[in-house]
Automatic annotation (TrEMBL):
Keyword check for tRNA processing: no
TM regions (residue ranges): 12-32, 38-57, 69-92, 98-117, 126-148, 154-171, 191-213, 219-239, 251-268, 274-294
Subcellular compartments: Cell membrane
Name the record gives this protein: EamA family transporter
Domain (EamA): residue spans on this chain: 10-141, 153-289
Organism: Defluviitalea raffinosedens
PANTHER family from the UniProt entry: INNER MEMBRANE TRANSPORTER, S-ADENOSYLMETHIONINE_S-ADENOSYLHOMOCYSTEINE TRANSPORTER
Protein's membrane topology: Multi-pass membrane protein
InterPro entries: AA-Vitamin_Transporters, EamA_dom, EmrE-like
């Protein structure tokens, strides 16, 4: 009975994380009206770090330089570059486009896992799923460039964000084997992610601009991104993986573009076209085909968002 309840709680926790992550693109899009991409990330990371420290005020004492490099590289790839590329992409394209494209990250992770981790073979189903997913992404980019007259730069940046997330996932798989506290590991990664963001801030028009915080919408969205989407969801997602396993938990990732498109339509009033809907279906279909191959394996790649 206790085990059954734990499994049910794991599913609920995963769904909760996905519901939050599926709306972050919209929240960021709203903040971009008063904040630059760099400013949003800086305030988000700082809030996340403070929240995680208050939740578990302990520091990791790494055993050697190799372990420290793992945290450093994970922070650079999964926090600095992934979020930076994702946020900047939102300045060029629709939030629904970004939400769909970044959902391809699990596939790129599977490809890198095959080459850098043991026991991760690539089977024909994975490649077939990739082709279908890429067809969907192509339709999304085509839709943005020629129907809505948008700059495809944002869509390309979103794809690059996927690649950095794949690298991050491989690194976090190795970090999880170090057997440190999950909250502490997440905080360490965000520390390096914030540290690497500072040079970019120096070459941007970053400023505190306290007047912007007088708007309730700005404060609420920053708190949502920093405390909810970053601090809380990262910890909850990792807990779900420990209960359900990476395979079952990762299935929920593919709900993100669906949630994002609905929220974008309802809140931002972004137009839904036939091309974008077909592209969405193809992308989700391709990812589902890839998931069939993953679910057959007892040990799969740990994916975080």
């Amino acid at each position: 009975m206790i085990k059954t309840r734990s499994i049910a709680a794991g599913h609920l926790a995963a769904v909760f994380s996905i519901l939050i992550w599926g709306t972050t693109f919209v929240s960021t899009k709203v903040l971009l009206e008063d904040f630059s991409a760099y400013e949003i990330l800086f305030f988000r990371f700082i809030l996340c770090y403070i929240a995680l420290f208050l939740a578990h005020p302990h520091f990791i004492k790494t055993k050697n330089l190799k372990e420290e490099i793992l945290f450093l590289a994970a922070g650079f790839s999964g926090v600095t570059m992934y979020f930076l590329l994702q946020t900047v992409a939102l300045t060029y394209t629709l939030s629904s486009n970004v939400g769909i494209i970044v959902s391809v990250a699990p596939f790129f992770t599977a490809v890198l896992a095959h080459f850098f981790l043991k026991g991760e073979p690539l089977r024909p189903q994975v490649f077939f799923g990739f082709i279908v997913a890429m067809a969907g992404i192509t339709l999304i980019i085509f839709n943005g460039s020629f129907i809505l007259k948008l700059n495809p730069k944002g869509d390309i940046l979103a794809v690059l964000a996927c690649l950095f997330w794949a690298v991050y996932s491989i690194l976090m798989r190795k970090v999880s084997e170090l057997d440190y506290n999950n909250t502490d590991c997440t905080r360490r990664v965000f520390f390096y992610g914030t540290l690497f963001l500072i040079p970019a801030l120096m070459f941007s028009d970053f400023h505190l601009g306290l007047v912007r915080f007088s708007k309730p919408a700005n404060v609420l969205n920053l708190l949502f991104l920093g405390l909810g989407a970053s601090a809380l969801c990262f910890v909850i997602w990792n807990w779900s993986i420990s209960v359900l396993g990476a395979a079952k938990t990762s299935i929920y990732i593919y709900l993100i573009p669906v949630i994002n498109i609905l929220v974008s339509y309802l809140i931002l009033h972004e137009k839904l076209t036939g091309t974008s809907l077909i592209g969405t279906l193809l992308t989700l279909a391709g990812l589902s085909l890839s998931e069939i191959n993953v679910r057959k394996k007892p040990n799969v790649e740990k994916v975080n968002i």
